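ok trying this again, last paste got cut off
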Amino acid sequence: MTPTSAPTVAGTRIGEPAARTGTTTRTLRYYERRGLLAARRDARGHRTYDEDDVRLLRQIRTLRDFGFDLEETRPFVDCLRSGHPQGDSCPASLAVYRRKPAELDALVGQLTAVRETVAAQLRRAEEARDGPAADASAPGGPEPLCELGGRRR
């Protein structure tokens, strides 16, 4: 180990950093293919990880949990790799943060509209159920209708 390298995670095998960061070994391999993790190998060909890698994985995991897509995590990872104590202390990371609230507001608006549509459909369905023509199963009764999907088949 060189004096400038970070200490290796005990066990160095892929399973330990995956477990410590709440991910899977498959995810770590995927991040490696995407260039978010370094592809280091020991003399036997096993992947090795150090505490810096664990820190990167925790940053990615936190951002992913908050709804950031994988490419949006890249500036934060790059910031940590360049020696900054926090992944969000670089201009590129801040730019991602600046864009995210508007995206989240748009998603909240979409979900609110869907919720209102479902609630209105529920009200109509309950009113139809309780109304005079509610017995659709009676002979000669109306065919059931669902406004979201057309006539029932």
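PB: full thing came through this time. The first strand starts at residue 145 and ends at 146.
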